[in-house]
Amino acid sequence: MSTSKFGEYGGQYVPEALMPAIEELEDAYERYVLDNEDGFMDEFRRRLRDFGGRPTPLQHAEQLSERYDAEVYLKREDLLHGGAHKLNNALGQVLLAKYMGKDRIVAETGAGQHGTATAMAAAHLGMPCEVYMGERDINRQRPNVFRMRLNGAAVNTVTVGRGTLKEAINETMRDWATNVEDTHYVIGSVVGPHPFPVMVRDFQAVISEEAREQVRERAGRPPDSVLACAGGGSNTMGAFHGFVGDEDVELYAVEAGGSSLEVDEEEGVAPNSASLSTGDEGVLHGARTKLLQDSNGQIMESHSVSSGLDYAGVGPELAHLVDEERVTPVTVDDDRALEAFHRLSQEEGIIPALETAHAFGFAHENPEQLGDVTVINVSGRGDKDLESVIEESAKRDLSAAPDMDVFDGGAGL
Amino acid sequence: MSTSKFGEYGGQYVPEALMPAIEELEDAYERYVLDNEDGFMDEFRRRLRDFGGRPTPLQHAEQLSERYDAEVYLKREDLLHGGAHKLNNALGQVLLAKYMGKDRIVAETGAGQHGTATAMAAAHLGMPCEVYMGERDINRQRPNVFRMRLNGAAVNTVTVGRGTLKEAINETMRDWATNVEDTHYVIGSVVGPHPFPVMVRDFQAVISEEAREQVRERAGRPPDSVLACAGGGSNTMGAFHGFVGDEDVELYAVEAGGSSLEVDEEEGVAPNSASLSTGDEGVLHGARTKLLQDSNGQIMESHSVSSGLDYAGVGPELAHLVDEERVTPVTVDDDRALEAFHRLSQEEGIIPALETAHAFGFAHENPEQLGDVTVINVSGRGDKDLESVIEESAKRDLSAAPDMDVFDGGAGL
Amino acid sequence: MSRIGEAFADGPAFVPYLAVGDPDYESSTAYVEALAHGGADVIELGLPFSEPVAEGPTIQGAVTRALDAGMTPGKYFEFVEELDVDVPLVCMTYYNLIYQFTTDDDERKGPRPFVERAAEAGIEGFVVPDLPAEEADPLREACDDHGLDLVFIVAPTTEGERLERIMDRVSGYVYVQARLGVTGARDDVSDRTDDALGRLEDWDVSEQGPEARRTESNGVPKAVGFGIKTGKHAERIVEGGADGVIVGSALVDIVAEGHREGRPAEAVAADLEAKARELKEGAASGYAQRVPEPEHT
Amino acid sequence: MSRIGEAFADGPAFVPYLAVGDPDYESSTAYVEALAHGGADVIELGLPFSEPVAEGPTIQGAVTRALDAGMTPGKYFEFVEELDVDVPLVCMTYYNLIYQFTTDDDERKGPRPFVERAAEAGIEGFVVPDLPAEEADPLREACDDHGLDLVFIVAPTTEGERLERIMDRVSGYVYVQARLGVTGARDDVSDRTDDALGRLEDWDVSEQGPEARRTESNGVPKAVGFGIKTGKHAERIVEGGADGVIVGSALVDIVAEGHREGRPAEAVAADLEAKARELKEGAASGYAQRVPEPEHT
Ligand SMILES: Cc1ncc(COP(=O)(O)O)c(C=O)c1O
Ligand SMILES: Cc1ncc(COP(=O)(O)O)c(C=O)c1O
Fold first, then answer.
1. Residue of B nearest to A163 (CA)
2. Is the Cβ atom of A306 under 6 angstroms away from ligand 1?
3. What is the ipTM of this complex?
């Protein structure tokens, strides 16, 4: 059996009704993913290439390199089908569900990227699919809601709580607990009960497998640092996994600093999503990990301008790597993320996801920490964020934002 | 000198003020593109790979293959950075402008895809950029307007006429005529005066170069047919160019049939964009080609549910290949295109651009014409079309559309 | 045998659930006491957790109301201490609250401080829906040290080795989940209840497997929950072999309705007591109709 | 020498432009006649094309009004036939209309039927803004066959070989584009006008290159257009060496304003005539101030 723990993190804290499914999944993970039974991994890799568009390029970023006096390479997961790294995992899990003989898929989504990736993978593989999404996120990421529906998925609105990812996960677990016998829950990040964290990591590890080769080819040497934004941590673990053994490579997990790192216990709100940087050990959604919680253990409402980072927990393996000091957690707040969004859009011609923009915010504030060669993971594209960015930028006085008036007034705009 | 004519089509019908710039461009095209002077083509190909994400995959489409009893392969230009084949050309031209020492870019756009591709390329290469777009198209393709602005481009609304691509081209030519000395006009398709049609074709030919290799590898033989939607014809020529010499490969240029192939001379409106299928020889936007025009030679207002096909002209080379019976022009109307959009979204997990959907509409109506192996060019993704599709589908009774109610009512939707 | 075990000794036990602090501290006290008056044999007292993943909308609502009214683990224990009832009390909550609880004397994370405090307050057992047998050893040990029961849920999907693993660790009663899904009152009784009871029965009579708790308690009683709403349901379930019925959402519905309509707490309490009586009597009548089973040692 | 060439013979020519049919057939007739009364030496009559890529907003507006009012090539020729003016008329239009025109007698596409019909109607020359020298041979030949002039535009960017290619083919007058960009009245005179005139002058005196039309006409006159608005502008330009001034947008502005304000056609015609007079006089006064040039054969 694969080990379910990373140090003291991880485990399987789920209702009994789900345990048999989780054991079945563990078995399937070992056979198909680890042992490539029935050629599962071959088929997965082939589909990632043909349907997903892998390998994604590693691009030398000319303006940023000059600005930061370092060779900045961008791992272009935004070019993956669906527009984010999320497809690596979604395709792997939906395919696995098929191998397992399941005939229905449920998933939760925050930014809607995992939901769209899952809906696309499910359509591609002919699987019925339902996606749970918080009401607030639905309003922040409407294009993704449309995309899921167009791919034939049902999108179920979750209205409890603040209506973000945490509530969507709760609701999906409830659906799964109800329909566990024929349904697979395609979890969207390296979170949840074992074997999800290792399995999702393995599906996402293709990012660093490719990047490690590509940067050696391009720069002729390993990078000094790798940067990735961290919500649940799937793109982080994907971008880091291949480098964890390369001890000289600094790994920065960039969390959402939101509007503040202070916590409002009274209101139960942490106006950030920095569970690695400020969180506390606890149990949520099936695993022991670092959490944003109050002193009683109630989970806090997190906040980030980017839906995809807006989560009170984080993957247990990442929490462990932080404790081991292998990964350095850092934070970038809403304002700096928005500025980084505009900067990348204008200077490199890449409109990043708001999630991704956090990684660039860190590079901008701390160029001296990048070393001579750095890889920044462009976890997704920003098409889904256009309206949010315009709205959020208008509220602020951002140095890097284009003049927003044109969006409001002007002929036909 | 490169020849400016394709049979009787082509030429250089532009105001004298532009002729020197066009001669300069001709010279630059020959030196940099044809002769790879200063390593232009090497740099272009490298940037297409790293920034653009080439090569794009050739994907075997399982559900469609089964449905049409043919091996259907999809050339996935939708995975190119920006979401359409347009970047191949935009990146080539902006880079060429740089080699030519120009320091400003103008472009027209219909669907906004060429505009966003140009804005991205211009940001990537540090070139100021202005894009002209018709008012009607701005309203149909708002996300692309936002994207251009975010990439730092100015978007200029064109209010004359029906406010679509034709008027945007007029206006861009006027800008170019005013600023011709320091400005390059990045035309968006294989239209316009020589050398644009050949140059744009050469930049787009990478599609068929790759596809030709890929289909041989995958199917072990050449395809029986290649399908691509045709507006101006850049993705068509890009998809066809490498196959033109393979005489057994049928080439289908799928035009927008709009709401009808009939023409309203009185109103000056052709409710379609089928210039190859129904048009007449004439001179527009710098070239002699097939046009939608009335008996006096006034250009008709074209129509298509997809902005990117909504144009009264077509590339001269394509017109010539049709006259030579090397390319077969066919049409697909708005309704069938919308149905094909929904079908591909639901069955293959790929949300295509509305333009692209026309090619799939043809395959669906005429599976017997595909032969045993067919390549369909997925010219772009449909993110830009979400709102239009929802609106246009709601007006119709489409068999393939998902239930649209959820988009209107429902909690938070 | 624990007090909880004893509650099942003579006839079927009626085990109601309410979320503590719903809709406020005082009313909640009255409601729990009403359940005792109505014939409760054991009471499950929910300590509200912000992420009630195993609950349906009804209990989610109760949890939200209780949290909004300020319920905390500290207040929960005071509540238990102040309760004037004479039935064994089971604390139902999620693991993070147990894990996080510390006291001024004991700042170690982990289940011990919580269990200690619970024992002190008068809690006699636990049900923790997100703590499967695999992760339960630390809590099981702490419970053993303080003489508390640890109830496990057996789901319709629980079979074979898993069932054994649970039966090895369970004490007090086995919570037989009548159907897949989350908590919530239903209008029908699940077919799967009979299956589950059957499986447990087979297991009970089988001689194989570790004997630990089971032999000691001469078979842990089986209480069925998830979806039971009426006396008729209770009757059928007990007739089908259950040793007890667990009812949550049907009672929370009464609390929620009273709250929505602004009714006085005494009126709601009276309704709860009447409902408890109906359920208790249903269970008794089911027992009476039961074909006598061969006793097993 | 053609009638158009002769119009430049004694003193600078004033060459106004109007779009035919703007805002309607009858008014347009009155307006063109008013220009003749005001002193026009040659009149450019625009045949509206739906894609006027070389025009600024003013003339685009005129074209749209004329098309909306039903102007077609057929009506255009009737208009020309019915005009009561005694100055040479130049047809200004885009190539597609010339190319598409067919008659019942002659259904071949290409410029011939159009040129034939134009000659018959009384047109004496053409300006085709989207037809550069490279594509002009078929039209040039048809014009030659019917004794019509073909005017070409020389832009600020036109130099060297290109200039020769144009001068080889031009007849009637050379349309010197005063500035880059599109048509439209301006408040200043472009510095580039002088440059352009200078270039042409050099060319004129040079002896090299094909002699064809040039020698025959002893130097084609140079008329400057694009942006000329006032008598003062006309004066400066002629003083700077132009053989004529072409004025379009400044006149179309008067038509547009009259249309917008619903003024009677006679009033607008009177304004046009006055404006024509101002421009014609400006040109004359510029000529008077001109330093006499050495004549060349
Ligand atoms: C583009 C993008 N990047 C990053 C994330 C964060 O997720 P994770 O940390 O699990 O990779 C998301 C989640 O939606 C996302 O959409
Ligand atoms: C996705 C897509 N496909 C096709 C087209 C049609 O253009 P062309 O025929 O020039 O390739 C467009 C134009 O905008 C487009 O956006």
1. B412
2. no
3. 0.92
